[in-house]
Fold this sequence. Notes:
The protein has about 400 residues and is mainly beta. Helix content is about 0%, strand content about 40%. The protein is built from one helix and 28 strands. It has one helix spanning about 115-120, and strands spanning about 5-10, 30, 35, 50-60, 60-65, 70-75, 80-85, 90, 110-115, 120-130, 140-150, 150-160, 165, 175, 185, 205-210, 230-235, 240-245, 250-255, 260-265, 300, 310-315, 325-330, 340-345, 355-360, 365-370, 380, 385-395.
Amino acid sequence: MKASTSLKAIPLVALSLCAFVAVATLPITVQGQPQDKAKNKAKAKATAVRTVTMATGLWHPWSLAWLPNGDMLVTERNGKLRTVRDGKLDADPVAGVPPVHSVRLSGLMEVLPHPNFAQNHFVYLTYTKDVPEKGEGQVATTLARGRLEGRELKDVKDILICDSWAGDGGSGSRLAWGKDGMLYMTTGASNGNAAQEGTSLRGKILRLKDDGTAAPGNPFAGKAGYKAEIYSMGHRNSLGLAFNPITGDLWNNENGPYGGDEINIIKPGLNYGWPKTSYGRDYSGPKIVNTAPGMTEPIIFWAPSIAPSGMMFYTGDRFPDWKGNVFVGAQLGGAAQGYPHLERITFDQNWDETARQSLLTDMKQRIRDVRQGPDGLVYVLTDEENGALIRLEPAN
């Protein structure tokens, strides 16, 4: 699997399947401030972007992270942890990754270095683990930690294992470090009622210390019938997690059933509804109740689905028109004629949505992750058997 590099300049000026799709006729937010509607009636400002393919041959890559020295870590769903050094993909994966259950959507997922990586070399992984001791076919979403020394993970230990389930439906997991020094982790529960059960860690966002134990001050600590690790509940399958750099709020995105994908602002102790409420339908067809007392509604939803995965707030200077915008990877087109893409969402000063823009539609590939690099550029992973790491940079 040899790395390759290619360049492609794409002006965002046409409503075309062969280019980024420009947003027309809608006022949008640039740099967090609402534009004057009278002066901006016609179009959003087009942005010329060049794509650089940094690596190919990745098997369903899932997550991307940077080390302090500029190296990049990339996970593949089949259990491989890869390194990109000086812009080139290492031929050999990092040794020491624990065995993963890689069937359908299950496998190796998130990778995230410790904030003090330079001192402790800790790297965190989330993955699907076989737990035969729980019964035949049982698997569990698991958080592992190891020390990255050169091209090997050492002293790898599972520091949190969620309750198990049977089947190969998959259950996504993302990680994010808070300014409080705590580790936030998403767990999925697409089927059944686990997301509403306080005794289950599935279908939740967890708040943990760096050793995987419950963080102090969690909303359900000491409450009968609830796990102390739980920060919020009622989540279906959260595949994006990021802190708003302006407000400090934690945001997640999650996949609905048949429609009803959503973005939520996460607050401690709140219940986000699944499976009691959703803006989607059951796969069998019936509608699900949209709202109910005690349930928190999303700030954004998609119907039909785009299958969001990965999420970031753009804060860099390389794309000034994108500053303050949210980006999510889309694994579906959201329409019969749509294609997977990178979705850009703009907001006004109150964080109310004002517009959406579809990027990378010409690639026709599922976008699994999107990250802002230390250089202020945007990086995406395509979720394919021959997946790619692609960098977006200004064309001029």
